[in-house]
Specification:
Elements lengths: L16 H25 L5 H8 L4 H16 L2 H8 L6 H23 L6 H33 L5 H27 L10 H22 L15 H14 L1 H15 L7 H7 L7 H27 L1 H29 L4 H4 L1 H25 L5 H15 L2 H12 L1 H19 L11
Helix pairs in contact: 1-7, 1-8, 2-3, 3-6, 3-16, 3-17, 4-6, 4-9, 4-16, 5-6, 5-8, 6-16, 7-12, 7-15, 10-16, 10-18, 12-13, 12-15, 13-15, 13-18, 17-18
Length: 438
């Protein structure tokens, strides 16, 4: 018998479907953990609100901050979704956008570090411009992210997928990010303003880079027979038609937009604590810890509810918690007064605890409801329409800033509670979109 020496490499066995799913899940969870840490270091309603306030921002500008974050991420989706639905692979779009976003955040961090020659007004304007660009570019890639998740994670595992992302990210944010934020922003910090915020923005930048690299490594299956691309004009023309013809989708969008009105006071809770209840700077880190820990621990029950009982129930339960947030803000000062003059800032921490309990479950519900409701071929269109309209709703906190400047904190908290209750009532009319698909 003659033996032949082969120099050819052995062909490795192909990954099974289960192995690919496991790998994609790990990468997607890692991406979520990294971005949870990034957002904790640069939380729009806590860290960045205090930063822009120190630069002299008015309540209207402060209300604009979460609008830029969420609205910038959501609004461009209608324009990008039409062209993206014709692509067999969406992940290359995510990768290109990720590189641009990383570059923009790098410039923001450098701006804060080397802002010694800038006045507060110019630094504020430059920061808001950079923050807007970062959010808007993220919106261009968010449809790609959602579509890749929809293609790679089965329907009945999406609750666990998002829940695990949020759980692990929240725990790391609690044990790592919150103590660092509290120390860097405390009176005993070795970093003077604005370098203390430069430290936090740099840490956020590192986490953003890790998250982008991880999700860029996901294995995306091709879309077979994708529909033709739609330009922006056609997408805008389809929006009223889609809302008119699909009653369930119309109800979902309406209920979610009203629920967003229940968050118009979100960026002002920390200002109320600092300026009215005299909470010390270190309380920013404590409030952040309460929020991220509550969010992390709530994700297991939220994921179980989503996977076993459906997304509709998750929307209703988190909507009820959203109602409780402004109600607690109204009661915190009287309750704190009963316990002593120094107790009010600690009692007010219940606001951020309730925000943490509701926010991750609400976001998960919003992402997955449209994924399950929309026909697979038209999913980018549905996501683009839904998220663009939600993007418009994210500018409600600007209205909150106007109202606080005119009416004060307590009337705005009362209005917010009523609007959140209205959103909860509308969500009770939503259907359960889940089918027997896996």
């Amino acid at each position: 018998m003659q033996w032949k020496l082969s120099l050819a490499r052995p062909i490795p066995p192909r990954s099974t479907e289960a192995e690919t799913l496991q790998r994609n899940t790990r990468l997607g969870v890692g991406n979520g953990v990294a971005f949870s840490l990034a957002e904790a270091f640069s939380d729009a309603n806590l860290v960045l609100t205090v930063f822009v306030r120190a630069l002299g921002a008015s309540p209207v500008v402060i209300g604009l901050l979460p609008a830029l974050k969420n609205g910038g991420w959501l609004l461009p989706q209608l324009l990008s979704a039409g062209r993206m639905q014709a692509l067999s692979h969406k992940l290359p779009v995510y990768r290109r956008v990720g590189v641009v976003r990383f570059g923009i955040w790098t410039l923001i961090a450098l701006l804060v570090w080397f802002s010694g020659s800038l006045s507060n007004g110019w630094l504020l304007a430059a920061f808001l411009l950079g923050y807007s660009a970062y959010s808007l570019t993220g919106g261009a890639g968010s449809v790609a992210f959602q579509e890749v998740v929809a293609k790679t994670i089965p329907t009945r595992r999406r609750g666990a997928f998002f829940g695990t992302r949020n759980l692990l990210g929240g725990l790391l944010a609690f044990f790592v990010a919150s103590p660092i934020v509290a120390w860097v922003l405390s009176r005993n910090s070795p970093f003077a303003f604005p370098n203390n915020f430069g430290v936090l923005l740099t840490l956020s930048l590192i986490c953003i880079g890790v998250g982008i690299v991880l999700f860029s490594s996901v294995s995306e299956p091709p879309t077979t027979d994708p529909p033709a691309p739609l330009n922006a004009r056609r997408m805008l023309a389809l929006m009223p038609q889609l809302l008119r013809e699909n009653r369930d989708f119309r109800r979902y969008v309406g209920s979610r937009m009203i629920t967003r009105l229940g968050g118009l006071a979100d960026p002002f809770y920390i200002l109320y604590a600092r300026e009215v209840l005299n909470a010390p700077p270190r309380m920013i880190g404590i409030y952040l810890a309460l929020r991220v820990l509550a969010a992390a621990l709530s994700n297991l029950p939220w994921a179980r509810i989503a996977d076993r009982h459906g997304i509709r129930l998750l929307i209703i339960l988190t909507g009820g918690l959203i109602v409780l947030v402004p109600l607690w803000a109204l009661l915190a000062a009287p309750l704190g007064g009963m316990l002593g003059p120094a107790a009010a800032p600690w009692v007010f921490g219940g606001v951020f605890l309730l925000v943490g309990l509701s926010i991750d479950g609400s976001v998960t519900a919003g992402l997955t409801y449209v994924m399950e409701l929309a026909p697979a071929a038209e999913r980018p269109l549905y996501m683009g329409v839904s998220n663009t309209l939600m993007g418009l709703a994210t500018f409600f906190p600007v209205l909150g800033g106007v109202l606080i400047k005119t009416l004060g904190y307590m009337p705005v908290f009362s209005i917010t509670a009523l609007l959140a209750l209205w959103g909860l009532a509308l969500s009770l009319r939503l259907p359960e979109p889940r089918t027997n698909s896996s």
